[in-house]
């Protein structure tokens, strides 16, 4: 099966490619409020992350996806199969670190990264404040192991943010529930226990980070930390609350992304005129 089929790739529009990669337990459908706004100016490419949607269950391999490096290779495979060049990779939540790994491995494929609510590590470690103690993560994983559906209903309002639409929270919970139980447990462990802080060091690719207000999964410390590691990273504080601004605050997300893309095109034109 080709990478395009494995990840249920859908494309629309023409121009500089925008590849959208969603977070844990969702599908490409979560971009429905944002992606269409760019079809007039960009080649919009949507993919399903392995194991998250019913369409991508068979794409998940316990060995390949035992780390986020497997998901990073999936992104690279989609870019190669779709013949994407100069791609701006837009990623959410756990996919942000897959995006970082993909850009480190194949910098020739990407012109910029856009990271929504990223975190290189969810665990507190000395002065580093990822937001969770190890026992917090162990408790979350224990609930998931014991009752997948209870975990989904418990986590959805935490992820979406209690201030946001109940309909969106219910949609997220349903999406979590639709995951294969074994995959849900495995991918959750990979997500919450991964540590990619060292992978931020030495990055030179231009990037935008959208940081949400009152995000239970990515506290304010994360933005300061990531920018200290990655000078080319622009951090924008959104008014949006929760962990899913592309769903709860799509217009704000569109405006910030559009401004970043316009700035990147302008910068590239100046660099080209100076022979850089």
UniProtKB/TrEMBL annotation:
Keywords: Hydrolase. InterPro entries: AB_hydrolase_1, AB_hydrolase_fold. Pfam families: Abhydrolase_6. Residues 18-255 form the AB hydrolase-1 domain. The keyword Secreted does not apply. GO terms for molecular function: hydrolase activity. The keyword Hydrolase applies. It comes from the Bacteria. Belongs to the AB hydrolase superfamily. This is Alpha/beta hydrolase. It comes from Aquabacterium soli.
